[in-house]
Amino acid sequence: MAVQLLETLEQSITAFTGLSPATFITLLALSVAGYYAVSGFFAGDNHPPPRSRSYEEDMPPVQLGEVSEEELKGYNGNDPKKPLLMAIKGQIFDVSQSRMFYGPGGPYALFAGKDASRALAKMSFEEKDLNGDLTGLGVFELEALQDWEYKFMNKYVKVGTIKKPEPAPEPTTNDQPAESSSVASNLTNAFSEMNRRLQDIYDLGAQRIEENREVTEIMRDRQWAQDFEFYSKPHDHLTGKALKMAIQQKERIEKKYNL
């Protein structure tokens, strides 16, 4: 069977090419070898060129320390020589490795260079929420902000904090006008008089409540005595409507006192 197949193949090669089977196989092998040699010569080195290192890979995170909110705005990604920073709850993080998200043109670019605590807690992209004010936030919003803070602490390097604004200095005694002490004294006297009057009103109200309680107890005792007296009297001498009313009254007394 195999011999017959080989003879048929040799006859086919001779019929179609006019060459002997040995010559045909030799030419085929030379063609394949020539193809690989030429393609290797023109292909050259197929390895891609080395990727240039970015700023984030070459430069370690720079520790800023305390900076103001105005200074933080300079790290919003518009200057390629500066790291890309944003803050949560006053903590500044270097998010340069996620420039595609927080850099210019990214979906969260408006958070860069700012303390975005309120916006992250509310999942808001409104300009009015791009700040670190947490006033009025609900429990669920504060929990959401806590989750964001944990994610940033685990993924990014903290490089600084936002400087809290210094409180305005309180005026000293020498700067105050001379009449301020008299005004304070008058206010103190007025509050003392108001507290005294409020206490008098409270005492009078407590006295009235006690008197009403005593009156209520007296009236309850009298009503009990009247009910008991009525309940104890025989009503056999009554007839008709009077007897019916007496029976109804006794039933009300029994129900009232659980007799």
Report on the structure:
The structure is a single chain. β2 and β3 (91-94) form a beta hairpin. Residues 41-57 have low confidence and may be disordered. The protein is of the alpha+beta class and 259 residues long. It contains nine helices and four strands, in the order αααβαββαααβαα. It has a four-stranded mixed sheet. It has two domains: 55-162, Roll (Flavocytochrome B2, Chain A, domain 1); 182-257. The radius of gyration is 49 Å and the shape is elongated.
By helix and strand content, what is the structural category? Answer: alpha+beta
Low-confidence stretches: 41-57
* CATH class value of the largest domain: Alpha Beta
Query: Helices and strands, in N-to-C order?
Result: HHHEHEEHHHEHH
Q: How many domains in all?
A: 2
Fraction of residues in β-strands:
5-15%
- The backbone outline, from C-alpha atoms, is elongated
Say how many strands there are.
4
Computed CA radius of gyration, to the nearest angstrom = 49 Å
- What is the CATH superfamily of the largest domain? Cytochrome b5-like heme/steroid binding domain
In angstroms, what separates the terminal alpha carbons?
122 Å
Quaternary organisation: single chain
